[in-house]
Amino acid sequence: MSVFPKHFLWGAATAAYQVEGAHDADGKGPSIWDRFSHIPGMTYQNTNGDVAVDHYHRFREDVALMAEMGLQSYRFSISWPRLLPNGRGNVNEAGVKFYSDLIDALLAHNIVPMITLYHWDLPQALQDEGGWEARSTADAFEEYARLCYARFGSRVKLWATFNETIVFIGHGYITGSHPPSVKDPARAIQACHHVFIAHALAVKAFREMAIDGDIGFVNVLQPHTPLTDKKEDRAAAALADAIHTHWLYDPVLLGTYPAELLAQTQALWGVPRFAPGDDALLRQNRCDFIGLNYYRRETVVANEEATRQQSNNSGEPGSGGEFGFKGLFKFVRNPDGVYTDWDWEIWPQGLTDGIMMIKERYGDIPVYITENGLGAKDPIINGDIIDDPRIEYLRMHINALEKAIDLGADVRGYYPWSFIDLLSWLNGYKKQYGFVYVDHSQDLVRKRKKSFFWYQNVIASHGEER
C-alpha cells in the first residue's frame, strides 16, 4: 500500500516570467524583471524573459504534454502586470483571458490548478512609486488579488499569495542581485513587513469573498546544520534558523514575529514600522496551508569576518563565494557533501527533517511541497535527453517525503521544479530543471526527457513505482 494519501496531488511547477515570454504582448505592462534583465551584466549571458519558452502562445501544447505525463496538478504564477499594467486600476482583459483559457485547458484534462499570485514580477509602475517599501503596494496587491478571485475563484481551489520572500527581498534589498538592487537591511525588513501585510490583506479578501478553496504562502525550506559541535557554530546555526525560517514563517502561520528578533531589529534600525491595526491583521489572517520549496540545506559556522556574497550563476563548480553576515553566521561547504554544478548540496534527508521541523513548531498545518528539483546540464545522447541524475534526485526526495508522511506530517502534494526547462532568473537557460526540454536552436521545440516517462510512471502508480 502506498503511504501517500488517497487525494495526494502529483504535480509540477513553473512561474510566469520564466516561461511565458510575450513580455509586451496584448497590453501587458512592464515588470521589474522586464526592466532589470535588460541591464547589461545583471544576468548570466544577459538572458531575459522576453520570449522565455513562449508558454503564452504555446500553453495548449504544454497542457497537452502535462496531461500525457499524467499531472494531477499544475502550480503556476500569474503575472500581475499582465492583468493590471499599472499595478492597479485599468484591467487588461486580454491578460485575464489568457489565464482563464489556461485554467479551462487544465480543468479539461482534470489537472488541478494551483495559482501563485506573486512570483517576483512586480509591476514596474508600482516600483516607481516605491515598490515593497511603500505601504501602498500592499493595498494594490489586495486589489490585484480580489481581481484574480473574482475572475478565477469559481474554478481554482488552491491559491498561494507569495513565493519565497527570503529570495526576492533578500536578493532585492540586501545583496542587490535582484531588482530593485538595494543593499540595506533596514529597508529589506520594512519591505518584508509590507509583503506580510499584503498577504494578510489578500487572505482577508479571500475569506470575505467566500472563495471555495484554500489559501497559503510559499517559503523556502532550508534546514541549517552546524559544521562542528562547537558552541559558537551551534549558536550560529540556531540564529540562521531564526532569521531564515522563523522570521518568514511565524507571521503567516502564527500571526506574529519572533519576539526576540523583532525587538533586536527595532532596537537596531527602528523597523519594521507597524501601521495601526497591523498586529490584528496578521493575527486574524493566517494560512490554510504552507508551501515548502526544498532544494538544499546549508552548513553553518560562526562568522567574525566580512564575507563575499557571490552566487554561482554559471554552473562552473566552486565559482561562487561563501554567503554570510559579519558577526552572525556564514554558509560554508560541507566537506562530506555531494554538490550540483551550481554548488547546491544534495541532501534528501533535509526534506524529511525540514517538514518535521515545521510540524514541531507550527502544528498540523497542511503542507504542499511546492518546489523540489535538480538544476543540471542535461546530456543529449543520440537525440534523447538522458537526465538520470534528475531521476535519482527526485527518487531520493520522494523517499524522504514518504518518511515524513509516515512520521505523521500532513503532506498533500508534490510539485517538482519544473515542468519544462525555463529561464532560471540569473542563471539563464544553461541551468535545466524540467521534465520537458526546449530546443532554443529549433523554434523552441519541446522534447520529452527520460525523466518525463519516469515521473509518468510514478504518478500512475501513486508513488509506488519509483
TrEMBL record:
Binding positions for substrate per the UniProt entry: Q18, H119, N163, Y295, W417
Q: Where is the active site?
A: E164 (proton donor), E371 (nucleophile)
Ordered alphabetically, the record's keywords are: Carbohydrate metabolism, Cellulose degradation, Glycosidase, Hydrolase, Polysaccharide degradation
Cellular component GO terms, alphabetically? cytosol
Domain of life per record: Bacteria
Give GO terms: molecular function aspect only: beta-glucosidase activity
Chemical reaction(s) catalysed: Hydrolysis of terminal, non-reducing beta-D-glucosyl residues with release of beta-D-glucose
Q: Which Gene3D superfamilies match?
A: Glycosidases
Reported EC number(s) for this entry are 3.2.1.21
Q: Which PROSITE patterns match?
A: GLYCOSYL_HYDROL_F1_1, GLYCOSYL_HYDROL_F1_2
Q: Which Pfam families match?
A: Glyco_hydro_1 (PF00232)
Q: Name one GO biological process term.
A: cellulose catabolic process
Family indicated by similarity: Belongs to the glycosyl hydrolase 1 family.
Name recorded for this polypeptide:
Beta-glucosidase
